[in-house]
Backbone:
């Protein structure tokens, strides 16, 4: 009897502590092995940090953890296999692991996946000596620790989940009522056109259908490896936004582009082809606008064309903002040529400041609404710019209904390294 009991206990222990291979097929079609080990009791305790909807855990391919919760989600347009190497300690995971078969409270996830082909960006950037703060785990596996000592968190979901409850319906109704009183700021902001040399604003340029698709795509990618997280500066201060980088990761701490996300050590997801196409047509249309000025012999002198290989996706809640700064961490070649930054705004409108100095009192202001595209290159490539406020309840109602985007603003800025 005692022998039988010991045998069962030993088997159970082995079952709980040995890696359970779970195929990891992310939205990036990365194949890997997820090993979940029970490390600490079976109690389940969800905790949240101060950011709404953010669970107190980091999870790689967390949609695939938890046995029964395995989901396969092909990436929109992204066909390359990406490299994720990580060894991440998680505390209670609000997603798959928490609901996993063992009620795992803390788990260690080892994930390894191979890289296949790709668009050539990665090797190109590796050759440029882009630094990645890669550390070695005891097992020798490379991984990158995000905030040392801080709780790792699951990627932020830019959309609300669950069924439409009365609170959401109420806020939709309120939004509808408020929208009747929203003054469209085209006149106030000068509307569509050339704001200054090299700076063009295309008002309501992105169709509602494309905006909806953009939100859904960003949500999909943003919940996966290399997804949304709240970045911080060297001094520990956090930015007042959630960020995800596509193509290459931009690290506010080092002010460098790297080929690993600090949040989970994964390669940044690639930029969906559709996004790049929109950027290219927006630049062409901006050239069309500039071409109306007969004194310009070559519009590209004022606004060079570019092919984006980086996209920084920011999500601002209604209290989010971004201080005046210059975008100057791209390659010196790109900056010298004045290759433009192309910015898409989706969701709530925002007050955007821009000027020649880092001084809010000397800056000009424009309201960026859902669907607007702002392009700044050439002589305006080094302008100081920032977001002072997000205007609540100003997003198109249909966009919110179709996507359940959280209150706030999604902004995508495309650049060429
Ligand atoms: O949100 C915006 O409009 C600006 C974002 C920005 O400046 C940046 O990501 O560098
Ligand atoms: Fe910027």
Residues:
């Amino acid at each position: 009897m005692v022998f039988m009991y010991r045998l069962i206990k030993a088997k159970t222990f082995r079952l709980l502590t040995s890696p359970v291979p779970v195929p990891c097929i992310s939205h990036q079609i990365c194949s890997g092995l997820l090993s979940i080990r029970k490390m600490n009791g079976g109690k389940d305790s969800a905790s949240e940090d101060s950011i709404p909807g953010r669970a107190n855990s980091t999870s790689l391919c967390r949609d695939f953890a938890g046995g029964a919760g395995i989901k396969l989600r092909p990436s929109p347009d992204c066909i390359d296999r990406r490299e994720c190497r990580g060894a991440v300690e998680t505390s209670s995971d609000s997603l798959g692991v928490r609901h996993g078969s063992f009620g795992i409270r803390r788990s260690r996830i080892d994930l390894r996946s191979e890289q296949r082909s790709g668009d050539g960006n990665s090797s190109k950037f590796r050759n440029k000596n882009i630094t990645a703060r890669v550390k070695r785990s005891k097992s020798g596996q490379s991984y990158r620790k995000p905030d040392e000592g801080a709780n790792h968190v699951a990627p932020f979901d830019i959309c609300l989940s669950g069924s439409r409850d009365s609170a959401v319906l109420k806020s939709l109704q309120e939004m509808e009522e408020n929208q009747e009183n929203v003054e469209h700021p085209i006149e106030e902001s000068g509307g569509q056109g050339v704001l200054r040399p090299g700076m063009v604003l295309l008002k309501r340029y992105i169709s509602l259908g494309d905006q909806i698709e953009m939100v859904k795509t960003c949500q999909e990618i943003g919940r996966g490896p290399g997804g949304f997280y709240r970045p911080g500066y060297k001094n520990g201060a956090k930015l007042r936004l959630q960020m995800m980088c596509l193509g290459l990761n931009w690290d506010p701490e080092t002010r460098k582009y790297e080929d690993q996300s600090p949040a989970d050590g994964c390669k940044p997801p690639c930029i969906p082809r559709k996004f790049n196409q929109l950027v290219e047509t927006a630049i062409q249309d901006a050239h069309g606008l500039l071409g109306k000025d007969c004194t310009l012999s070559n519009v590209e002198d004022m606004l060079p064309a570019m092919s984006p290989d980086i996209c920084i996706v920011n999500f601002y809640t209604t209290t989010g903002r971004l201080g005046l700064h210059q975008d100057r961490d791209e390659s010196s070649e790109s900056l010298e040529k004045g290759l433009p930054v192309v910015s898409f705004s989706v969701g709530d409108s925002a007050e955007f400041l821009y000027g020649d100095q880092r001084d809010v009192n000397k800056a000009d202001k424009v309201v960026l609404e859902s669907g607007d595209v702002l392009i700044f290159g050439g002589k305006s490539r080094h302008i100081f710019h920032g977001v002072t406020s997000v205007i609540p309840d100003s997003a198109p109602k249909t966009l919110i209904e179709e996507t359940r985007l959280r209150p706030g603003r999604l902004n995508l800025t495309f650049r060429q390294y």
About this structure: The pocket of 2-oxoglutaric acid (ligand 1) is lined by residues 312, 314, 322, 327, 343, 352, 368, 385, 387, 411, 413 (CB under 6 Å). The CA atoms of residues 17 and 37 lie 5 Å apart. The chain has eight helices and 19 strands. Confidence is low (pLDDT under 50) at residues 12-83, 85-151, 180-189.
